Amino acid sequence: MTHNDGLDALRMRAQHLLPTAAADAVLADKLARIAVASDFAIDTLARQPELLARLTHDDGAEAAAPPVLAPEHRSDWAGQLRRYRTAESTRLIWRDVLGLDEVDATLAGSTRLAETCLQVALAALEAEFAQRHGVVRSRGDDGREGAVQRLVVFGLGKLGGEELNFSSDVDLVYAYEHDGGALSGSSDGPRPLDAEHYFARLGQQLAKLLDEVTADGFCHRVDLRLRPYGNAGRVAWSFAAMEQYFQREGRDWERYAWQKARPVAGDLDAGARFLETLRPFVYRRYLDFGALDGLRAMKAAISAEVARKELADDIKRGPGGIREIEFLVQALQLIYGGREAELRDRHLLPALQALVAARRVSAQAGAMLAQAYRFLRRLENRLQMLRDAQTHALPESPEDRARIAVALGYRDWPSLREALDRQRAYVMAEFDALLAPRRRRNAPDALTAYWRALPEGGDSAVLGEAGFIEAGNADAMLRDFARSPGVRGLSDSARARLDRVLPALLQAAAASSESMLALRRLLALLHNVLRRSAYLALLDEQPAALARLVEAVTHSALLAERLAAYPLLLDELLDARVAGPLPGREALHAACAAVVQGDDADAEAVLQALNEVRQALSFRIAMALRDGRQTAVDSAQQLAWLADGVVMRVLRLAEHEVAAAHGRVAGARFAVLGYGSLGGEELGFGSDLDLVFLYDAPHAGESDGAHSDGARPLEAARWFARLAQKVVALLGAVTGAGRLFDVDVRLRPDGAKGLLVSSLASYRDYQRERAWTWEHQALVRARFVAGDAALGEDFEQVRAQTLAIERDRAALNADVVAMRRRMRAELDRSDAATFDLKQGEGGLVDLEFLLQALVLGVARGHAALLAPRNTPGLIDVLHGTEVFDADTAAALREAHATLLARGLDCTLDRRPRRVPLDPALAVARAAIRTAAQARGLDFDTLQPPA
């Protein structure tokens, strides 16, 4: 009999299910297609005739209501569940084969079916257990018994990921929240059980009710082997015991397994809480390239099994199969998910999309992998739908092959096989590429042999041949490093990584322009990461990170110091966002605001996390500047915006702490003002922050003024002084990630002798009545940074009124010139060979004084001058108001950019901001000097004030 004859026979068999001989041809065609695809579905329709009528009615669009497991019909529970599962499975086949559902919907439907059966079965068993053994209650902090505890059923694998295939088993782990509340720690019924045995027996009964084969078949196969210690471990675990197990003995494969974990039955809320506590076990805080070792081990074991059992045609475990796509996506999630929460999706296709959005996977690769995944999962389902068998192997029978091919819309088996081979070849290529980086990079054999011979052996001539000019000094440093306790104490696996990484670093350092400098800085960094295997793994697995590391430490002492002090920044070398566009103002503020949301009770944790965010973002800005991907002006502005975000978050933390001790002042407002380079949005790397604090409260300054409403109330002025002190202290607090910022508050009214925080009224009076000209100059760059926005607007009014005061131009110029000459005499560090970029003649401060004098002189007639704070903005507005002509404005913009860039370069390399004179500096200085002198401002200290 030919294949076509066999398919015709199957179609004829389906005709017997038609309700009448005159049944319509459309239904007959549907049944014929189902018959080709699934013996299981045809058998189910024969056993449950009413099911065909339901499917005919709406093509199975709606799932059936789950069965009610009544206690009086205990003996029929298994049959009810099995008949329900076979009917619903047939509905899924109907919709899949007839093209009514995509494969994603079929997988989701299989998942919902399993969840429903689990939840219905567990609820019935819980009621039965309560009659026989009572319930287990939690114990409160006061020793009294609390709420009833329920079993928590975690679904792992494809059940957890909501991508269950048609005839899959379900991977379950049983847990419970507490060990029990009664004095005996047992349930409270007539036949009490301790919590562990209570929930273990309940779980075993649940597995039996679903898994046991009866006359009606099975409901779902249950696999409990993913619990701690597998089959040797207890059946049900308390949360505390599970957490302790994962902390002490959790293995790489369990991290993969628990990535997809999800509470599917029982106490879902308790399960969700436990998974949150388990997140640090699954997702590390750093880029976790060590996860690839676990992946390699698992893949090697699977490959050995495939070879041993000849499973090359297994579309799940074989080459280019479903498992490789899952491993690829999950490995990238583990590597990057600790830092990027958006990647922690337990669903494979959304996780793949997130990886594409984060640029961890190219858009083309993501699309191809998603296509391959859907193709393989659809084929997997059809293999299982044929006879409800848990199989992943391509059929050997010619008839089965023809049935699968035709049902999937292919002409014949060779056509399907050709399409399958194309998909698997692509998956294999992508998967191998993930594991390949280590194999693609090898240091020269001579350097590898030299390093492994240290500290006693090794020939320093090898270093000279590699490119180290001072080979002897390099050799001495490397021998000292090899003798260090940190290297000698490494585990075998960590030493193996170091033996691969260090020769590659030597090769890269030797090729750099400053080989000895690079080597010295790299060894300092390695000393700090030897005990942190994740960072060695990153450098071992990713040659791109290693190359960028050498570049960074060679050209920037600041980056080298920060990498050595805070190895977490090594992650930034591989972060795809480093090479992309830098975040803008709102994104920088949001990144700081999101730090430890809603948990200001732990100030240390907030400051640590905020410091890590600041370090990472400022490092990213530094790398963009060093790589020439953005200008110094843009970098300085971003650093100021980042500082704004830090101050906002610290203010929130400070308010929480002061309010906890003293309550709050009703109707009061507080604002933080940024002066100097922060106000002017021209912050440097490592700059301190010039801050001024304002408050406004009902009846401020009066003896009967407002007080806070806490247990230890303070009058408003003291409350806000305490708040300002707290802000300064928190910004300067030392954490494991360093301190946030040094703060300078000397620019407040009356300077160091004045109050730390000023009321709005006193600040207004001071600016109008007592402030010096230089204080009005400082006000040109001042801006609202954090706090109450309405008070910020009030400050803007005070600032605008102050800057617009009518002034005698000659007296103004005399004041500005006198102050500038005094500053230069005290602060200018220029000499015959070098120029002080900030304080030197024609330097940045000269430009600032020029712009400030012009704003104070003409702002009364030009309101537009009140808006900008940064130097480019002020130059543009002065040009727009015809104070500067186009040539002068262009020359000053260029001069500012040149000086700022040189200054940031010095900061990045930890050099004083003094540089040798050159033609570009001469042009910049001349532009500033000429513009100042043309407007009556001669800052040259060699001439007496006018």
Keywords:
Beta Polymerase, domain 2, 16 strands, 59% helix, 5-stranded mixed β-sheet, Four Helix Bundle (Hemerythrin (Met), subunit A), alpha/beta
Write a structural description.
- The strands form five sheets. Strands 3, 4, 5, 6 and 7 form a five-stranded mixed beta sheet that branches. Strands 8, 9, 12, 13 and 14 form a five-stranded mixed beta sheet that branches. The chain has a two-stranded antiparallel sheet with strand order 1-2.
- Helix content is about 60%, strand content about 5%.
- It folds into six domains: about 100 residues, Orthogonal Bundle (Nucleotidyltransferase substrate binding subunit/domain fold), CATH 1.10.4050; about 140 residues, Beta Polymerase, domain 2, CATH 3.30.460.10; about 140 residues, Four Helix Bundle (Hemerythrin (Met), subunit A) (Up-down Bundle); about 130 residues, Four Helix Bundle (Hemerythrin (Met), subunit A) (Up-down Bundle); about 220 residues, Beta Polymerase, domain 2; about 130 residues, Four Helix Bundle (Hemerythrin (Met), subunit A).
- Helix 5 runs antiparallel to helix 6, helix 6 crosses helix 8 and helix 28 runs parallel beside helix 30.
- About 0% of the residues have low confidence.
- With about 950 residues, it is of the alpha/beta class.
